[in-house]
Amino acid sequence: MTLDQYYLLGRSGLRVSRIALGTMNFGTGGFHAAYGKTENEVRPIFRKYLDAGGNFIDTADFYTAGESETILGRLIAEAKVRDRVVLTTKYTNSVDPGDPNAGGNGRKHLIRALEASLRRLGTDHVDLFLLHTWDRVTPVEEVMRTFDDLVRAGKIRYAGLSDVPAWYAARAQSFAEANALTPVVNLQLPYSLVERTIETEHVPMGRHLGLGVTAWSPLAGGFLTGKYRPTGETPSGEGRLSDPGSAGKSWTDRDWALLKPLEKVADELGVTMAQVAINWVATQPGVAAAIVGASSADQLGKSMAALDFELSPDLRALLDEASAVPPESVYRMFTPEYQNWVISPGVKVGDKPAGYAPGVRNW
């Protein structure tokens, strides 16, 4: 169980672990207080991640009302690893409900939020700074010019986007390229065996335009651990299934049916269902890292061990088929079957042969 392999994040030279440490539960305040942990409780989790070689840490100013950043800053200073870690934080959420400019994606709030995050984190820069959620009104040009200004000022090293439409991310990257501005290298999105809709546009867009996807909620809020029943209770009768990012999602018959092949794969490999689910996400095309949180160091250790095995083509195909989302509307026309019928009946056409651009490794 080590995270000693690092890959480039998107089209950049930034090297990150394939498992990122999510710190949404670092702290006991604000919206996330129900499952938050104290500094003493999360210190072993943080140290476990570092000891395994992990270097990619994710937080946001909104997490536990800023406590996550404060605690994380202290833990990083305590361990003396500021230069080693790739520190990521995000902005968008309101810090003052009575002030219309204290939330959203605009330049005024972007700069204000970053300065506040830097104070809480106890550092003069963050390695990766993300727009947290699209606010639907701020011009993308304003966001990208502000990101560029902050990179030039040395306050952020790289920029990224989280939870935005694919067209918005494409517009942001194209605007940056056309105007020689700082590009975005990261796209943070929900992705799991039960939430694959980003494959329709976000993932191919990211692969073409140089945005590495980091996947949040790879276990679908705990659903893919297999410990829940259709009633919403665990086998022991404790707890309820919840996903803070699901916006009231109701689990369908298709979702519950997915647990059977997931369990079959886990049993065949001698690992847990959660480990299979994390492995599947982290090794999907276009995905740079899976973001995992933990309530204990032991739980984090099990999650990181998800990269200690490989899914065979047959087992991956079983999971892919069980979790597949049928294309809808115009997207039905972009399937291999439809394209073959339209463009090349009886002829095999592809973009590049297998092995055309093999990956480069320095080990």
Automatic annotation (TrEMBL):
Pfam families hit by this protein: Aldo_ket_red (PF00248)
UniProt KW keywords: Oxidoreductase
GO MF annotation list: oxidoreductase activity
Region of interest (Disordered), ranges: 227-250
The keyword Iron is assigned to this record: no
SUPFAM superfamilies hit by this protein: NAD(P)-linked oxidoreductase (SSF51430)
Domain NADP-dependent oxidoreductase intervals: 18-322
Xref: InterPro entries: AKR_Detox_Biosynth, NAD(P)_OxRdtase_dom_sf, NADP_OxRdtase_dom
GO cellular component terms, semicolon-separated: cytosol
Protein name: Oxidoreductase protein
The species this protein was found in: Amycolatopsis keratiniphila
